Structures are given as C-alpha cells and as structure tokens.
Amino acid sequence: MSAPDLSICIVNWNTRTDLERSLASLRNADVEISVEVIVLDNASQDGSPEMVRQRFPSVILLESRENLGFARGYNRAAARAGGRHLLILNPDTVVHRGALEALVGFLDSHPQAGAVGPRLLNSDGSLQFSCRRFPSPLAAILRNTLLGRLAGRDRFTRAYLMADWDHQTLREVDWVSGAAVCIRQEAWKELGGFDEHFFMYAEDMDWCLRAHRLGWRIYYLPEAVITHHIGRSSDQRMVAMVVQFHRSMARFYRKHYAAGWPWGLRSLPVVGIWSRAGLVLAQTLWAEGRDRVRAWRGHRP
To answer: What CATH architecture applies to the domain 6-134+165-234?
Structure first.
C-alpha cells in the first residue's frame, strides 16, 4: 500500500473539547488527498483518549504516561507517521476546507521547500501573526528593558511580527508557527525532528533556523487557512507557561547567538528576556489575584 500524502500529528494535553472540534474539522474537510491522523495524548486527565477512541476510531491514538511536552510529543507522533509530508497541528485548531490540499500541493510543486505554514486566524477571524523574522539579540534587549522604551521598542516588535506586510500573498519567511506547519518528511528526518531540549516554545523557530542552514526554504501560504484558538493548553497553567516560554527563548539565544557576541556582553539579551518574564509574571499574578477577589465578592452571602 502506498504511503499517505499527509500524516497529521496532534499532541494533546487536557484539551478534550478543542481536540474533538479539531478532529471533527478534519473529518468534515472532504479532503482529496490520502491522510492519516495521529494523536499523541500527554497523560490527559479530562477523558481525551476515551473521546478519541469512541468518536474517531480511525485515528491512530498514542498514549503517554507522562507529559512529554511539545517537542518530545511531536517527535514521538512523527516517528509513527508514514506520510510523504507531516502536518504538525495543535489540538486547538479548526482546519478549513482546501487547506490540506493546498499545503501538500505546495510542497509537491516546490522541492526546495522544507516547510510551509498556512494563514492562521484568531477565534474572531482576525489575522494571527504566524510567520515571523528571526529575533535578534539586540531586539531582545531593546524590546524587553528600559532601553527599549528610549529606543522605541514598538518598531522592533513590528519587525519581528512582520507587521509591515498584509499577509495576503505567498512569501518566503524566516520561520512559521508550530501551531500548524506542513513539513516535508525528508527535511524532518534530515534535521532529526524538534530539539527536545525545548520542552515547549521556540522549538518551531529552532527547527526552521536549522532548516535554513541546511539549505531548505520556509514559506507562508495564505491560501491555506486554519483557525487557531490560541493558548488553550497553556492557559491551564499560566505562570508555569510564562516561565517556560522565557526559558525557551533564553535557550534559543544561547544555542544560536551567544557565541557570536563579545564575552562581556553575552548576558545582556538573557537579562532582557528575563526582565520581560518578570514583568509578564507580575501582570499575570496581579490579574489572577484581581479575578479571585472579584469571584469572592460575587459569592459572598
């Protein structure tokens, strides 16, 4: 039997409702290519595996006894995949009709492309900035510290997000979000999948940078559309996820950029990253405390 055109890999952690909606969108997409769907469940406690078995018996279900995180989870799912291409897909996504065919068709007609990302939409239908430029160490300092306020940090943020472009046309880009990215199986294997030192966050950016260095090209394809209800898993543990995000960004800098900086200045981008982490944590804890007070007041007799 010939290999499927596409292996869709989904890693789930306690997002049963979103996962069910995502799998339903795949089933209802009326795809014209051969597809297999693989779900790796990261030790969910919300009945996700049972739901998959009952409602989607054709899905290949892998169950982990522990939370492997994003990179390890997708590596394990991809190891089971037999498709010519892989679609790394978050469980909090809804795939629009025609998106899968567009992504596979693009890779088939562009042999130099290692990966292609779709146009991602927020829950309200607005554009989600899913393709970006690689962050520079200087931007890490200027965006996240007092120096950034003096230098006008908004322009660094806009440059990083590629906000100077309407995202309506095909374009070669630095990297695309791992929430939904179609990867050529050959490129995936050549790079050895995601770097498992990244538990969650930045593994997609790291993969794309390594792909560029091996001569692969990364593209953004607006004709393929997927809605991404962002942050459903991470919202369950906001403080831990804030810490994990900034830890991953610091790791990315140390892995790819630190050696090129003068020894005495190498710590500055890391200071910028963790300065931002402190600010975001303070805002998160304040918001959580405010919400608890409001809830307490609302339940007073």
So the answer is: Alpha-Beta Complex (3.90)
- The torsion defined by the Cα of 178, 183, 186 and 190, in degrees rounded to 10, comes to -20
Cβ neighbors of 95 (< 8 A, separation 6 or more) are: 22, 25, 26, 29, 89, 226
Give pLDDT tens digits for 111-163: 999 999 999 999 999 999 999 999 876 665 555 544 444 444 566 677 888 98
**Residue partners of 124: CB distance under 8 A and separation at least 6:** none
With H, G, I as helix, E, B as strand and everything else as coil, classify residue 210. helix
Side chain identity, residue 38: I
Q: State how far the Cα of 72 lies from the Cα of 217, in Å rounded to an integer.
A: 24
Residue 280, H or E segment = helix 267-298
pTM of the model: 0.84
- 175-176 and 131-132: which strand pairing? antiparallel
CB-based contact 131:177 (threshold 8 Å):
yes
| Residue ranges covered by each domain of the chain | 6-134+165-234, 236-294
